[in-house]
Design brief:
The structure is a single chain. With 604 residues, the chain is mainly alpha-helical. It has 22 helices and six strands. Among the domains are: 265 residues, no CATH class; 41 residues. β1 and β2 form a beta hairpin. α2 packs antiparallel against α3, α6 runs antiparallel to α7 and α10 runs antiparallel to α11. The chain is globular, with a radius of gyration of 25 Å.
Length: 604
Amino acid sequence: MLNNNLLLLILIPLAISFLNIFLPTILRKILVFATLVVTSIITINLFNANNETFTLFSNTILSLDKMSYFALAGIQLLSFIILIFSLKGVENNIQKQFFALYPLTLAFSNGVILSEHSFSFLIFWGLSGLTLYLFNLLGKTKDTPKTAKKTFLIIGGSDAFLIMGLAIVWFLNPGNSWSLLSTNIPLVDGLSYTAFFLFLIASFSKAGGFPFHTWVPDYSKDSPVESVAFLPASLDKLLGIYLLARMVTTLFEIDILVNLIIVTLGAITIIIAAMMAMIQNNGRKLLGYSTISQVGYMIMGIGSGSILAFAGGLFHMINHTIYKSNLFLALGSVEKRTGTNELNKLGGLGKIMPFTFIMALIGTLSTSGVPPFNGFFSKWMIYQGIIEKTATLTVGYQIWMLICLILAIFGSALTLAVFIKFIHAIFLGKYQKKFAKIKRTPINQILATGLLSSLCIIFGIWAVKIPLNNFIIPALQDLGLSAPQFIGTYNPQLIILLFGLTFVTGMIIYLFTKKVKFDNNYLGGMDAEERFRILGTEFYNEVKNMKPLNTLYSWAEKKYFDIYDITTKFTNSTAKLLQQAHPGQLHLYLLYIVVGLLIFLLLI
């Protein structure tokens, strides 16, 4: 039994996590690195495996198909690269806890992906939420305890909905032996719809979809940057979207109305998060909101009902984890050198951190959907798949779907605006003398962001040859879905050639016509102090003050859209009412009993 490869992917990191509790930091790092080498080798060896399973008491507990393999490979790859960044740079006072939690999170994440049995899935899903909370507690900001509590309640609360959903699924289909891969419950009545939306809450909470997204930007700001890149930017997105993909393929048989509801929630997620990202002056919160916005594209693709868009949603899932981890780690390098992640306090770092600047620029172009980087092609597949699906709908549904598509495309434009702000505020603008003596970025951090940036390029240029043909299309076929005959009109090599010609032409024109004059800034006839420099965030403050956007932003600051804050206020108000209703008078309690008994009799 212990020789089973699927079980080893859970037991090995689990054992190392327990062992690391008692070891010095350097040995913890070595063992975690060795663990990921071993799990990566096991994963590679499973590439051609057919229906690998692990059974216990005649029940299939773990199993591997092509879609779970795709997610599993993504987990090992991203965990390995983020670990490289973390080997040097994690705060000294949290290193012991960090390198004990790291393999533990890997074990639980592998368990979620590999679980076929409902109980196994539920256990690993809940434990992965617990490690998210524990990583959050390693932060050092004043808001860390509050953010950890918020994260725990949203993620933990969604686990309760998942339990109820699983119970209903078992009630509707008791003969499936608690399998998550062969249920296929049609949505035909209130109970089946209830089960579906309970699962949807769990999926959206983990992935960061609207309206269960508000923990992500706070977590991004208040947790160690390595854990942010590891969890909300990477593994949690994989787990949440993986569950959604299972829901619409093997758990439920959904109809067009549910498709449209999911697509609408995805479009709302894109727009709301992109607008919130635009006004953020904290670099980590900006990336956190951008992370939520990109989840919206995955939700739209997976839930659209189009096979092409579904494939694009899976592809965007892995693309996002690559470029967003890259951006968080690049910002982490800046933060560790300068001591801040506030955009108003940064600027001009491109000159003294050129490698980090290039890696961040690649991540920016990828997340903004600029060809030929990977973020463009997956979005392009989603757009074309939704258009393809729209052609098969009635007029009313067509209008509904096209409105969502227009919002998604507009969200891409907003994302580009957000990251122009991000790059300009950190790396461009006026050079500041206070950064003249900052240390060079360690080689391990450059290597990690370099590997992620390379994947952004590789998965963009060779999207069809590598991720699609080797992972995504086989996953579709394994699910019984026909591979899309047409994956979009897109030639990355031609685009590179056209971009290259445009760049060369522009440089030639510039060299022959340049008339550049550099001069100092003066204020009252004297050299302007650095504190009077032009900031890369000022223009976006005007956006915040525009009507009617200022009203929406005001509501957002008052947390009118924060489901955690709304629920907290409702709970507190209810508690006060209950306190007022219990003054300790016996005759009042007797009245409550009589009224309750009458209501009960009327109901039955």
